[in-house]
Amino acid sequence: MFPSMNRDTVGPDEMRLRAAVEAIYGCFAAPVPKQIIGCPCCITTRQIDILLTKPLHAVTGTALWRYVSGVFLTVGAERDFRYLLPRILEVSAFDPTNANDPEVVLGKLKLAGWRSWSPAEQQVIEEFVDAWFERELTRDLAGAEAGWIEMNAESVLCGAARAGFPLRPWLIRLCEPDAAPVLEDLKSRYPSELSAFWELAPQQLQEFATILDGGSS
């Protein structure tokens, strides 16, 4: 699944995230769906057929991008989404330049009704998102040391909000001393320069604002 790696050079956050992806592959393993339904023109223009003719691990981010952007809107249903979910999440975490934004990817979970899935399935997704957030926070903090903070952790947090996750654990994490550079950056960008996708999760944004306004979570 992943390229060969040297455990001495890969950090614990990266290792944890890779293990979380492997757990999702195991939990969601299923036969290849016979077809993906949808708007005929979208099925053709989005080259949806490629998704079912290649081994799951070989499906490219470009092919998935077309599917993810339209799933539950013009193409796809829960069965094919569940089948493709491990690869969607893997590409999102490890090949982001060829993936949809985390806000889009995680937002699709709500459309899929993931909170009606089995407890085991929900748990592996929760563990993945938590590991993904922590890996991105680590990267943002490393950027802060170099003088540049990206929006990686915020993107995952916003995506989690769109999926219906409770944000409190991550808000508490952002208030810990070592996360201070990222929190200060978020405060400086609030409200006008945060991810535009927060508009689709207004209740969670209000919760997020409790720490951005200087309050406590």
Characterize the structure shown:
- The chain is mainly alpha-helical.
- The chain is built from 11 helices and no strands.
- Helix 1 packs antiparallel against helix 5 (78-94), helix 1 (12-27) packs antiparallel against helix 7 (119-145) and helix 7 (119-145) runs antiparallel to helix 8.
- It is globular, with a radius of gyration of 18 Å.
- The termini are far apart.
The helix fraction, in percent, is 55-70%
First-to-last CA distance: 38 Å
Overall morphology: globular
Number of strands: 0
Structural class: mainly alpha
Average of the residue pLDDT scores: 91
Total number of helices: 11
**In sequence order, what are the helices and strands, one letter per element?**
HHHHHHHHHHH
TL;DR of this structure?
The chain contains 11 helices and no strands. It has 217 residues and is mainly α.
Task: List the keywords.
single chain, 217 residues, mainly alpha, 0% strand
